[in-house]
């Protein structure tokens, strides 16, 4: 699928466009607070998978159209078309290739991912922001994991992401009690990168994307990988991974440019290679 992917129609869309070395992805279903249909999730998977192998990309932005980021998966739409009870194991078969795959791609892709959040970030919408490398939100944004309030258990990485970001006690508050977390509190907890005034959101996100897209892309990707491994590896295992990553990053053009810039006492001009 092209990086200009578009899943249009009454069910909403996931659109993407290139802006230099940045891929800007928009969840476009504002009338439903950008809640994700199955087709939107599939398009998001395809778009991120394509981005993962596109050498000219250096950063990714995910944002919502309109007043909200994403109100989660649209379970009502998914279950209204067919009133028959799904066969046993239906969710187990489908979700690993849909919602769970989206989180895996955002978390594992060797490109920095930034989420621009306003309004509601709910369920998988919340987890998109948590899986990203940086989430910048307006002061009025709200993060919410309402799974148990709807009578089912969490998915899309909630039980893995939250304890690692905010600890078990706060994870229980969000997942077992369904507490809604205002963006300013989320920033204080370390759940997200920062909050800003609504008027400053776009400029703040663009400044961050510009900085990331100008960085040494290979080294950033390897660092992201090592941070992920370090969440469950021993110190020795992490340092072994760092060693292999260092060997790879030292063979890049950006490493040579970084040394040259240091010697010449100037800012480096990385090309992402």
Automatic annotation (TrEMBL):
Enzyme class per UniProt: isomerase
Keyword Calcium belongs to the record: no
Molecular function GO terms recorded: isomerase activity
Entry superkingdom: Bacteria
Keyword 4Fe-4S found: no
Pfam families documented for this protein: ECH_1
Assigned keywords, A-Z: Isomerase
EC number: 5.3.3.18
Family stated for the protein in its record: Belongs to the enoyl-CoA hydratase/isomerase family.
Record's protein name: 1,2-epoxyphenylacetyl-CoA isomerase
Organism: Mycobacterium basiliense
The organism's taxonomic lineage, starting at the top: Bacteria, Bacillati, Actinomycetota, Actinomycetes, Mycobacteriales
């Amino acid at each position: 699928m092209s990086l200009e992917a578009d899943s249009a129609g009454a069910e909403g869309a996931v659109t993407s466009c290139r802006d230099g070395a940045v891929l800007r992805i928009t969840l476009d279903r504002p009338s439903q607070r950008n809640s994700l249909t199955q087709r939107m999730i599939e398009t998001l998977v395809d778009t991120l998978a394509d981005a993962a192998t596109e050498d000219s990309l250096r950063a990714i932005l995910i944002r919502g159209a309109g007043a909200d980021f994403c109100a989660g998966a649209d379970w009502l739409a998914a279950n209204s078309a067919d009133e028959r009870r799904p066969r046993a194991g239906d969710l187990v078969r489908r979700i690993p290739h849909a919602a769970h795959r989206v989180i895996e791609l955002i978390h594992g892709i060797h490109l920095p991912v930034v989420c621009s959040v306003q309004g509601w970030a709910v369920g998988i919408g919340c987890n998109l922001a948590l899986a990203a490398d940086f989430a910048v939100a307006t002061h009025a944004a709200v993060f919410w994991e309402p799974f148990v309030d709807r009578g089912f258990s969490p998915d899309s990485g909630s039980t893995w992401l939250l304890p690692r970001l905010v600890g078990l006690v706060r994870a229980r508050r969000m997942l077992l009690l369904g507490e809604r977390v205002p963006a300013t509190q989320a920033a204080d907890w370390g759940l997200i990168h920062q909050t800003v005034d609504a008027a400053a959101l776009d400029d703040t996100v663009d400044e961050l994307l510009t900085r990331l897209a100008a960085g040494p892309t290979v080294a950033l990707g390897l660092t992201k990988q090592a941070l992920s491994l370090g969440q469950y590896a021993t110190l020795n295992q992490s340092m072994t991974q760092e060693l292999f990553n260092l060997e790879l990053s030292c063979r890049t053009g950006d490493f040579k440019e970084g040394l040259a810039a240091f010697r010449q006492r100037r800012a480096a001009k990385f090309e992402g290679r």
